[in-house]
Amino acid sequence: MLQHEVSPSTLPPSEGAELARLSWQGLQAVLRETDASAALAALATEVAQAMACRRVAVGWGSGSGLRVKGLSHGAQLSRGVMLGGVEEAMQEAVMQAQTICLPRVADGAVRITLAHRALMRREGLIGAITVPIAQQGEVLGAITCEREHGRFTAAEIIALEALAEAVAPVLKLLHEARLSGWARVRRDLRLRWLREGSVGRRLWQFGAAAVLVALVLGAVVPVPHRLDVPARVEGAQQRALTAPTDGFLQQVMV
C-alpha cells in the first residue's frame, strides 16, 4: 500500500482540471512511444515541462535493482550524465513505498529523507520529490523531480501521484514486451514469492528442501532394482528337413 503526502480532498475544486491535464498529457507522451526506454524519457520530459523542473528522472525496478532509465530534456544516459544521488533518492522512496517531498507538506506521516536531503545539498536544489510508480501493490519504478526555484505544492504532489498511477500499466506492458521467456519465468516466480504470506513461503521452503533431499539420496544411496521382461530365444537361421516317407524322429543328437 502506497502512502501519499497529501489528500485530494485538501485541494480547492478549481485545481482538479490542472491535475487531470498533467495525467492526460503524461499518458499521451507514453502512449506515443513503442519502446520502454523512449517512453520513460518522454514521460520525464513532459513532467519537467509541465512542472517547471530543472531535471526529471524516471527509474525502473525495485529496491537495489532500481536504475534510472529516462531523463528529461533529451539527456542521454549513455553519455555519462551525472545523476548525483538520484537513484539513492528513488530507492529511499521505493523502499518506504511512499511519496517523499522536500520541503515537506505536513501530513503526520514519518518518512526517512536522508537521500533526498543529500541530493538537494549536492545539486543546490530548493525542492525535490520522488513518487513511486506502482500497480496493484507492486512497485515498478519511481519519478524524481528537481527544482531550483520554488517548492512543490500540494496540488503538484497529487498531480504527480495521479500521473504515476495512470502510466504504470502502460509502462509495465512496454517493459514486459522486451523480456525474454526465461526473464518472464523469473519475474513470475519472484512475484509469487512476494505475494505469498509467511505460511506460504514456509511451505515453499519445506517443499524445496524435500525435493533437494530426495535428489541427494537418489544420487548417493544405492538402490537395488529388477526389471522383468518376457523374452524368447530363436535361432538365427531356420531350415526344414524333409524325408521321402512319413515317420518319426527317434533321437536328436544336437
Rounded Rg:
34 Å
Report the structural category.
Answer: alpha+beta
Poorly predicted tracts of residues: none
**How far apart are the first and last residues' alpha carbons, in Å?**
91 Å
Percentage of helical residues? 40-55%
How much strand content do the residues show?
5-15%
The number of helical elements comes to 7
Shape: elongated
Mean of pLDDT: 82
Largest sheet, described in full? Answer: 5 strands, antiparallel
Number of strands: 5
Strand line-up of the largest beta sheet: 2-1-5-4-3
- Series of H and E elements: HHEEHEHEEHHH
How is the secondary structure organized here?
Blueprint: H1 16-31, H2 36-50, E1 55-60, E2 67-71, H3 86-96, E3 100-102, H4 114-123, E4 127-135, E5 138-147, H5 154-176, H6 181-195, H7 198-220
Antiparallel strand pairs: 1-2, 1-5, 3-4, 4-5
Helix pairs in contact: 1-2, 1-5, 2-5, 3-4
What would you say about this model in short?
The chain is α+β, with helices and mostly antiparallel strands and 254 residues long. It has helices at 16-31, 36-50, 86-96, 114-123, 154-176, 181-195, 198-220, and strands at 55-60, 67-71, 100-102, 127-135, 138-147.
Commentary on this structure:
The protein is α+β, with helices and mostly antiparallel strands. Helices cover 44% and strands 13% of the residues. The protein has 7 helices and 5 strands, in the order H-H-E-E-H-E-H-E-E-H-H-H. The longest helix is centred in the middle third of the chain and has 23 residues, at 154-176. The mean pLDDT is 82.
